[in-house]
Design brief:
175 residues, mainly beta, Elongation Factor Tu (Ef-tu), domain 3, 2 domains, seven-stranded mixed sheet, six-stranded antiparallel beta barrel, 1 helix, elongated
């Protein structure tokens, strides 16, 4: 089932305050993303479990995958400290459509995973980016697998259908 156009996509997390003026250090999930430079509001999942839309006052690049952000109503270091750990999202409609052979990770979490012969392996439960490769974390009935997202191991990913087909799972069992 395709994702709803009115849904939100998580793009990063506040890792800590920056300075004393209320600026926030945000770790982007996609280090190449520039979406925070293109929107004027973010959706924030707050530590108490509530969520709200907050206007962006300013945003600037800090380093690879890190932006410094000031939000309306967050003034001073103490207020910024209360934002530590807050997950930031944007409306799906603000993101570019994935290109051919591309997908958003959030769209494959929960996808069913099969081998080419049709044997079901499990479900995608997470994604991890390591310095040398990106992997899908797959939970089987009694085992977990970390399968690199490369053509040698992944036959196809159909995010719209919620289906991933692997060539093999041999050697990818994880702890």
């Amino acid at each position: 089932m395709p994702p709803a156009d009115d849904s939100f996509v998580e793009i990063g997390k506040v890792v800590r305050p920056h300075g004393v003026q209320g600026e926030l250090r945000v770790q982007l999930y996609n280090p190449d993303s520039e979406v925070l430079f293109e929107v004027d509001k973010v959706h924030a999942l707050l530590p108490d479990g509530s969520d709200r839309e907050i206007k962006i006052d300013s945003v600037r690049a800090a380093s690879a995958g890190i932006v410094l952000l000031t939000l309306e109503g967050v003034a001073g270091r103490d207020a910024a400290e209360t934002m530590r750990g807050v997950v930031l999202s944007v409306p799906r409609t603000t993101l570019p459509a994935p290109g051919e052979g591309e997908f958003y990770v959030c769209d494959v979490i929960g996808a069913h995973v099969f081998l080419q012969d049709g044997t079901e392996v499990g479900k995608v439960v997470d994604y991890r980016a390591y310095p040398t490769t990106e992997v899908l974390l797959i939970q089987g009935e009694s085992k977990r697998y970390e399968v690199p997202l490369v053509a040698d191991f992944v036959d196809s990913v159909d995010a719209r259908a919620g289906r991933v087909v692997l060539l093999s799972i041999d050697g990818f069992e994880s702890e």
